[in-house]
Amino acid sequence: MAESKTFQRVAVHTDRHIQKYKKEGLETVNSHIDELHKQATKAAYSTSSSNSTSASSGGLKPPIKPLEGVAGFFSAMGKVVRRDLGIK
Q: pLDDT of 11-30, one tens digit each?
């Protein structure tokens, strides 16, 4: 197969397309990451009073450490089952 001109053309053509799509994909991912970074920076440095009041009024809460061991397992399983069944 290595001596086949047709195989070599297909291999070169395929490699060219793969490299092109990898480059385009990387550029797309980088642009999305840049946009997310801009939005996150804007939100972090926002001095809006609505953000500070929502945090103090209970809008944002620190994460709660999940239960460990068997109790944690059954608690997490119960949450998943309730979510799957549509039970609040």
A: 999 999 889 888 888 888 88
Alpha-carbon span 86 to 88, nearest angstrom: 6
Q: Counting Cβ atoms within 10 Å, is residue 66 exposed (0-12), middle (13-18) or buried (19+)?
A: exposed
pLDDT digits over 32-83, tens only?
888 889 888 888 887 654 444 444 555 678 888 888 899 889 999 999 999 8
User: Would you say 11 and 19 are in contact if contact means Cβ atoms under 8 Å apart?
Assistant: no
Between CA 76 and CA 72 the distance in angstroms is: 6
Question: What b/e sequence results for 20-53 when a residue is b if at least 16 CB atoms lie within 10 Å of its CB, and e otherwise?
Answer: eeeeeeeeeeeeeeeeeeeeeeeeeeeeeeeeee
